[in-house]
Amino acid sequence: MSFLERVDQTIRRSPVWRSIFRQPYPRDERSRAYAVMNNVFLHIHPVRVRQHAVKFAYTFCLGGLSFFLFLVLTVTGVYLMFFYVPSAAQAYDNILDIQSQVTFGLLTRNIHRWAAHLMVFFVFLHMMRVFYHGAYKPPREFNWVVGVVLLFLTIMLSFTGYLLPWDQIAYWAITIGTNMGGYAPLFNTPVSRILLGGVEVGQNTLLRFYVLHIMVLPLVAAIFLAVHFWRIRKDGGISGPL
Amino acid sequence: MTDTKAPPERREVLPVDPTRRTEIDKQRVPMSARPYRLLALVKQDAVVRVQKEPDDTVMTWPHLLTIEFLAAGVMSIFLLMMGLFINAPLEELANGNVTPAVAKAPWYFLGLQELLAYFHPTVAGVLVPAFVLVGAALIPYVDRGDVLAIRPSQRKTAVILFTMFCILGLALTFVGIFFRGPGYTFVIPYVTAPGMYFAL
Questions:
Q1: A33 inside domain
Q2: Is the separation of the CB atoms in A213 and A157 below 8 Å?
Q3: Looking at the partner chain, which of B57, B89, B166 has a beta carbon nearest the beta carbon of A49?
Q4: pLDDT for A15-45, tens place per residue?
Q5: Same domain for A100 and A68
Q6: What are the 10-residue block averages of pLDDT along chain A, 242 residues in total?
Q7: If I label A27, which of A106, A234, B39, B91 is the partner at 20 to 30 A Cα–Cα?
Q8: pTM confidence score
């Protein structure tokens, strides 16, 4: 027995390891079922799935990858939050510091940016995939509605994050974006006035978008994600086969 | 009068006289060697079968989890490469007094911004997005066709309408991204304009 194998065995036989993982490594059907059922992260899945559902070309993993991007964005976003103050006077300098001073700051910001665009794109693609498979049909009507809400939340998450670097791209994109929706009345005040916290993009807007971006929208999205995943199981698993 | 049941009559089975053994008798196997009898031959359809769903399932571990793990891994590598080699755009400090050559919304709103060039802001900015979102949410309640007809060939109307809508949205977004230059005029990038007017 090699040294590595002995280390591996010692770890696996230690009381600490066995207190975390009650079962040995799953090698037969029964223990594999337990592994999925007894794990908090895996029990989102049923123990068995229908064969067509594991074919890559059926789902292209679009929904799963959208969720994965959501997780990546959460992790990278939390890291960026340590170095960012939502103040019109400081925000831009913070971004410059993140890019030049913070360890892995530039990489983290880049990944956060690209993952955000990719998530919007993937949620669109996921929606198209679901439509072409007729997967919105009963009994999955309501889960489709939840999905539309999640698409809206994803776009709003991206849109609110777009302002935070506080550069010219951000400022004018948000100005255009809020001007477009600005004609919608909401309780007698145009939506843009409420979103902007004033007549034009300024400190109030930055703070509002920041709070929406890091707290309100992620929480709401997490709740709808939970409902979305739950309903997949409750509506009879993944749709199909075609 | 008591009704007593007579014990079942035991029938004496006499061994077949060896001189009178027929072909069938020769094929007989003693009961001790073959403790069953052939009663009848029935076609399979006549037998009551237990209703059992055809099992088309596979174990989540490892079949589904492998694919999810690989997909997440490939996506991680892709994001890492993107993050390493392409920097997120960052221009000068926000300044409300300096208007850029062309102000564009994020790419997913450029279809709507393109509509803004043709319609009143109430239509492009409020009515169309509201119609798109509410309409999308209502699809399953409007399409009341056969629930089992999920193949695109079985529901051509829905597929054609949805596809046309998607192409329209994509085309508008495409024009907004690539063919709009200074002052939101129509340009052809690198031909009638020095470059592209678009930031991700």
A1: yes
A2: yes
A3: B57
A4: 999 999 888 889 999 999 999 998 999 999 9
A5: yes
A6: 92 92 87 91 92 90 96 98 96 97 97 97 96 93 97 96 95 90 73 86 95 98 97 90 80
A7: A234
A8: 0.85
Contact B98 A168 (CB under 8 A): yes
Q: What is the pLDDT of residue B115?
A: 92
Task: Say if residue A42 is in the same domain as residue A8.
Answer: yes
* Count of domains forming chain B: 1
Bond prior to A241 in cis (omega within 30° of 0): yes
A109 touches chain B (CB under 8 A): yes
Can you give the pLDDT at residue A25? 87
Low-confidence stretches of chain B (pLDDT < 70) are 1-38, 42-54
Dump pLDDT digits (tens) for B136-190: 999 999 998 888 888 888 999 999 999 999 999 999 999 999 999 988 899 998 9
Q: Tokens in use for B107? A: 């790419």
Phi/psi at A180 (5° precision): -60, -50
At A85, is the secondary structure helix, strand, or coil?
Answer: coil
CATH number for A189: 1.20.810.10
Strands A189-190, A185-186: parallel, antiparallel or unpaired by DSSP? antiparallel
pLDDT of residue B124: 86
Whether B125 sits inside 8 A of A179 (CB atoms) is yes
For residues B77, A105, B104, A123, the Cα torsion angle rounded to the nearest 10 degrees is: 40
**Whether residues A141 and A206 fall in one domain:** yes
* Segments forming the whole domain that contains residue B147: 107-184
pLDDT at B20: 67
Nearest to B166 among A112, A128, A167 (CB): A128
CB proximity under 8 Å: B 53-72 to A: 56-65, 67-68, 71-72
Q: At B17, which amino acid appears?
A: D
A240 part of a folded domain: no
Q: Is residue A242 part of a domain?
A: no
- At A219, is the secondary structure helix, strand, or coil? helix
3-class DSSP state for residue A88?
coil
Give yes or no for a contact between A117 and A158, defined as CB atoms under 8 angstroms apart.
yes
Residue A125 lies in a domain: yes
Expressed in angstroms, the distance from the first to the final Cα of chain A is: 50
Radius of gyration of chain B (CA): 40
- Regarding beta strands A48-50 and A185-186, do their DSSP bridges make them parallel or antiparallel, or are they unpaired? unpaired
pLDDT of the residue at B195: 83
